[in-house]
């Protein structure tokens, strides 16, 4: 493990090793909290292998499903059963078979007007505040035990895109994003940086040679959303060999 400014970078061999390491960290965080646990998942392809692992025999028995609640850091503004829906993908791969339905907290996309993702954002924000039991985040009491993250080719994370004003949002917990900067070009709903930061651990998963260019920019300290996303607790970046920037010294 190596310290890089605010983050710890852990290098792993490949996506399979990354999924195992992420599963171990999730189980470790759960075991540190004997009460109600909150995990915030992410979309995109990066967490797919992890989700499959959690559904498998080795890992599913290690999770106390009754007391773990599952949220999502950002959502594409498509119906819940659309293959592009982030929580829909997680539900299909592992949550629907293992987690009690009342412990799954999707961002609503069907009840709100497609032209106004802010409405869905406001509904999710109200739900998060009610779960947390307060309207203000207390740094001494993080909202999430663990927040999973990915990084896009433009340096976005969750649905917080470079140069967008939503990046500087400090009041709202969740925001509507009318237009995405990358595919799929559907409106998004995203937790804001302070909301995502309210966790014991933020865990990025970055794998594959096509991530190397953006990771080089991120690790050079460029002002990108993925660099601004950090936990009030620990921020961990899991990076596989193929994604590791040239000359990176662990
Ligand atoms: C989304 C995401 C997004 C994602 C990155 C990385 O809804 O698209 O949550 O922030 O994590 O774009 O995506 P990949 O894992 O597919 O590379």
Topology (SSEs and partners):
Layout: E1 2-4, E2 7-12, H1 15-32, E3 37-41, H2 48-55, H3 57-60, E4 68-72, E5 74-76, H4 86-98, H5 117-132, E6 144-149, E7 174-177, E8 188-191, H6 193-197, E9 199-206, H7 212-219, H8 225-228, E10 234-240
Parallel strand pairs: 2-10, 3-4, 3-6, 6-9, 9-10
Antiparallel strand pairs: 1-2, 5-8, 7-8
Helix pairs in contact: 1-2, 2-4
This protein binds 6-phosphogluconic acid.
6-phosphogluconic acid is lined by residues 42-46, 74, 76, 86, 150-152, 156-159.
Question: What does this protein structure show overall?
Answer:
Helix 1 (15-32) packs across helix 2 (48-55) and helix 2 packs parallel to helix 4 (86-98). The chain is globular and about 45 Å long. The chain is α/β, with parallel strands linked by helices. It has one domain: 3-Layer(aba) Sandwich (Rossmann fold), CATH 3.40.50. The chain has a seven-stranded mixed β-sheet with strand order 1-2-10-9-6-3-4. A hairpin with a 2-residue loop joins strand 1 (2-4) and strand 2 (7-12). The N and C termini lie close together (7 Å). Helices cover 30% and strands 20% of the residues. The structure holds 6-phosphogluconic acid. 6-phosphogluconic acid (6PG) binds at residues 42-46, 74, 76, 86, 150-152, 156-159. The site of 6-phosphogluconic acid (6PG) has 15 residues, from strand 5.
């Amino acid at each position: 493990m190596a310290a890089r400014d605010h983050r710890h970078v852990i290098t792993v061999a490949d996506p399979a090793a990354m999924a195992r390491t992420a599963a171990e960290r999730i189980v470790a965080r759960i075991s540190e909290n004997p009460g109600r646990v909150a995990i915030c998942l992410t979309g995109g392809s990066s967490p797919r292998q992890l989700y499959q692992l959690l559904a498998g025999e080795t890992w599913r028995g290690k999770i106390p499903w009754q007391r773990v609640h599952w949220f999502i850091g950002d959502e594409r503004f498509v119906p819940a059963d659309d293959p592009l829906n982030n929580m829909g993908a997680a539900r299909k791969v592992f949550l629907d078979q293992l987690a009690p339905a009342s412990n799954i907290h999707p961002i609503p996309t069907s009840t709100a007007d497609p032209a106004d993702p802010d409405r869905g954002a406001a509904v999710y924000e109200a739900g998060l505040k009610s779960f947390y039991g307060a309207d203000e985040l207390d740094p001494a009491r993080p909202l999430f035990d663990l927040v999973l993250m990915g990084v896009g080719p433009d340096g976005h994370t969750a649905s917080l895109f470079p140069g967008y004003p939503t990046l500087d949002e400090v009041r709202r917990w969740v925001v509507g994003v009318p237009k995405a900067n990358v595919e799929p070009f559907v409106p998004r709903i995203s937790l804001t940086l302070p909301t995502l930061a309210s966790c014991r651990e933020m865990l990025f998963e970055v794998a594959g040679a096509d991530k190397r260019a953006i990771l080089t920019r991120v690790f050079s300290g460029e002002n990108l959303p993925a660099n601004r996303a950090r936990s009030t607790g620990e921020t961990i970046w899991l990076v596989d060999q193929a994604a590791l920037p040239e000359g990176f010294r662990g």
